[in-house]
Amino acid sequence: MFIERRVNTSTGAVELWRCQWENHEGSPAKKHYLSKICDEQPINPDADGGLSEKAAICWAYGRTLGNIAVFSPSLLGHFPGRSGNDAVLPCDFAHAGKFRHGADRLWCRTHQTHWGTKADLEAYDQAGEMRCANHAQQMNYVVSPLTVNVNQHAEVGIWCSLPAALSTEEIKPRPPKIHVHVREVAGEKKVIDKDFDAIATLYSSSLGLFGNQEITRVNITPPAAFDYVYAVERGQEMDCINCSSCGYPHLDLADFARTPHRKHFCGNCGRDSTWSKGPIVSTPLKPLHDTFAKNLKYETPSRTLDLDQYKGCHYTVWASTPAIVWTAERPQEFGIHVHVHDGTSRIVDDTFGEVKLDGAPLERAKLIEAMIARSVV
Description:
30 strands, 4-stranded antiparallel sheet
């Protein structure tokens, strides 16, 4: 879902509409206008509260494209706090070729939409400022995020943290988070074991993850992490294709990440001239995973657990999810993770090959579906 301008020919007003791309294999992506939001409002010069440059990660839910492989940790914008969902960033335009009628077409890299339609030009004449249709969109953000240099630690594990599948307590739907394990000595105590809203990863440019060697940072955001896990769990073909025009690694999100496809629309330059050899979901998280994975095997633990033996205790159950980054020599565990609390004491915290509840074994496939369904993306 995205926002597009449209001129009302009867009133001359510039309107903002909700739009959606339809992307069917074998045919060009087609834009559909779904519903009018409102007439575009005039600029309030005091609304942004001032812009500043900060080390930050921003993301928006519902987009089909995005940028997570970046050159710099800094962003220019208005960030009211350390984290939140109300950041405002200025437009950043790149030339994206021409429209079919020959007019120049620009692409806003910040808000992921084209500029240059009649409605955009009308809005420019009225406002006296070049802004894309999504310019007022508030974005999620983290200032001074955790930054993990993957090369500098003995073991790094990074996962998409999803809501629980089962619990004796209420499970509220929530956005995904990024769970991080860091060990300075392999197999020893973790120095980081925590959920984060978003994180940055660093690596050496000599590893050649992407076509553009200046990129040495991949931001792991909730939408990108969720779609990576979704693709792995669904067995979708996943890779990372570089834009044929600007060389930028392509990220599919939301609807574009649900169906593998060959034609890819670049979130960095706004051009749609990149084709993969076969239908894929493209994400920079794929080469990040593959480059650092020392062991690609999964291992089902021999441990078993019977939750019926913990009457009166509180429990929470998750299906284990595939790691986005896994640098350990040992295989990843594939099973069911359980926490059991007796009062305030956690008496069980482990991953099991089999977990029984009410006399029957739990099915991991059903657990992961429940977790996906509760994720707010």
